[in-house]
Amino acid sequence: MLVQRGMSQKKLAELTGVTGAAVNGWVNGRSEPRYEKIAAVAAALGVEIEDAVNRRTPMVSPDDVKWVFRAAPADGGREGGNTATFAFSASLDVLAREATQNSLDEQLPGLEPVVAKYVLHELTGRHLKDFLAALGWEAIERHIAAAADMRQKVGRVLRDGLSELADTQRLILLRVDDYNATGLTGPEFDDGRFARVVRRTLDSGKAGAQGGSYGLGKAALWASSRFGLVLVNSTLSTPEQGRTERRMAGRLELPWHSLDGVEYAGPGWFGRVDPERQNTAQSWWGDKPAAESLYLERSEGAPGTTFLVVGAYDGSGETEDLEDMHGRLVKSLAHNFWASMVGGTLEGAKLRASVTAFRNGVPVRPEEFIDPHTHEPARSRAVQAFLDGETVQELTERDQVLQTTVPLELRRRKDDLRSDNPGVHQAVLLLTAAGEEDEQPDCLAYMRATRMVVKYKRVGDLPLGHRTFQAVLLAGSSTRSGTPEAEAAEQLLRTAEPPDHNDWIGTEDLTATYERGARQKIIDFKKSADQKVREVLRGQADEAAGDEGPQVLRELLRLDPPKVAQSQGFPTVRAIEGAIDNTGAWDVTVTVKLPKREEPWVITAVPRFVVRSAGSVSVEWSKIVPLAGCELTPHGDLVFADGATQGQFRGVTDASSHPVSAAMSQVMVDVRRAKEEF
What we know:
The protein is an alpha+beta fold. The protein is 28% helix and 27% strand. Helix 2 packs across helix 3, helix 6 (92-105) crosses helix 13 (322-337) and helix 8 (137-147) packs across helix 9 (153-168). The longest helix is centred in the C-terminal third of the chain and has 29 residues, at 518-546. The radius of gyration is 29 Å and the shape is globular. The chain starts with a helix and ends in a 5-residue tail after the last strand.
C-alpha cells in the first residue's frame, strides 16, 4: 500500500506517531501493529480499515484510472495490428462460438452449469455521453484517429467506426457474462488467467479436455469491436491481492501510430498506473458505481468474467440492426452449443445461455434462454437419451435413439516412451429419426469434452429410400467412459483441431506431438463413423425387407421410388474466372445458370473474400459490366432476358474494400434475387 500511495516508511511513522523501526517491522512482517495503530495506518493511507487489517489492495477511485499506451520499440519496428484478430472473421457467429467455448473451458468443478449471458446495449443521447465520459473517450479518440490509416485493413475499420459514431451518435455495446467459471485469476504480470487474456497474445495455457489450444479465441472479442476495444470485470474463484470482486481492466488493440510527435507500438491499457513499472497500467479493484457507469456490473455474485465489446458490430456486413444482432446470437449459440445445454439424470447440462437486448436501458428483446429441444429437437433427443441411459441397440419406435460405437486407433505421443500400445478408444455414435422441420437432415455432428459441435457433416452414399436421420458422434471425454483411452483420445482430437476448432484434421501440432500415422488414424476414424451410419441404416432396411416388422421401422426405412429431379429453383454461379489486376483488385468473369421461367430474373451479385473461419467477408464492386444475356439496372443489379438459362457479366472488386490483400485471398461470388422490382 505504501508503494501505491507513494508514501515512505518515514512519512507513515510520522503520521501514525510511531518510530521508523516499528513501521519497518510491520512492512517486513517481523511484528504486527495493535488495532488502534491499524486504524491510524488506514487513515494515513486513505483506505478502509478492513483493507489495512487484511493487507489487501484497496479499491481505486475512477479519477485514478488512466489510459496508458505502449511505447514504440527503439528499433523502429511497426505492427499493423494484432495478428490473432486476423484468424477469424469479425462476425457475431464467430464471437459467440469462441467466447462461449472459453467459458465452458473455465467451468468450476461441481454440478452447476456455466451460465453465459449475452447482453446488447444500444446507447444514444445522455446514455452515450455518460458512458464515453466514464470510459475516458477523449483520451483515446485521438489515438484511434491517429491509427486509422486508410492504407491498412485495421485502419479502415477504425476510420469507419469513428465515422459511424460521429454520423449516427449511436454506439452498441455487447456484454458477455459467464458465471460458475474461474474468473481472471492470477497475478498481474506473471503466468495466470488474467495475464493470458488481458496482456498476452497466442497464449492459451489450456490443456486436457479444454477446447482452446491456440490462445486465439479471446481475439474474437477484440475483432468484433469497431475500435478493437474490450473492457473486463471479473469475480475471482480464488482471491488475488486479498480480493475477489470487480477486478477491472481494459485493452485497446491498435496498430502502430504516431501522435503529437510520439510513436506508439499500438495497444493501450485502461487501469491504475503502476508505480514501479514505467508506462504501465494495472488492473484495478472497482466499486459498484464505477462498474455500473461502464456497463460492467454483474447481475450475480458467482465467479466468472464479464467482457464488454465497445462498438460491437457484425463484420460480415449481414446486419447492423439491434434486433437482428439479437437473433444472430441466439441462432449461433443454439447451432454450436445445443448439446452442451442438454442435461440428463446421470449428467446435467454443461451450459445455460441467454441473449437480451436493451436500448438506453429499456428492454427491446427480453432475456431469452435458449432451449436446445426447441432449436435442435432430434439431436437433443439423442444426447438426452444417452445421458439418461435410455438408448437402444435396435430401433423399434420412431423417437428411440440407437447407440453403437466407432473405434479410434490411438497413436503414441513423442514425449511418451513408456507405452508400446496406446490402445483403441470406442467413441459413441447416436442415431435417431430426423424431424420434419429439420433443414439439414442426414447429418453427423462431431463433438468431444464440452459437447460443443466441432463440425456438421452430411453423410453420403446412403441406402435408397431411407428415412431421414440425425447422428451424433461423441468422442473423448464426452463418452463419459472415464477410461485412459478416452482421455488419450481427448488429447489426440484436441491436437487435431485447427484454430477455428471446426474439424479434426492433420494439424502441425498433431505432427509435432504424435508419432507418424496420427493423421491417417483421424481420417480413418471419420470414415468409420460414416460407414457405421450406413451399416446401421442398411441393417435396419434388410430386416424390414425380410420381415415387415414394426410399423415404425417401415416408416423409418421405407424404400420409396426415386424422386424425379426438379430444376434448380434459384440462379447459381456456374463458373468464375479471373485474375488480380495492376490495381490489386480481382477482375473476374462470372457465368450464371438460370432456371427457366416466364418472368426475367433480376439478381444482385455480391463478391466475397474467403477467410479462415466458417464464413466469408463481403467486399464491393468498383465496376460491373454485362457481357451476355443481361443488362445493368439503375440500382446496379443485373436483369436477364426472358426465358434465358444462362448469362455472363464481368466484375472488378474495389481494392479499398478488401479485408486483406487480393494476393492473399480467394474470391467467390454470391448471386441473390434482387430486392428491387423490375
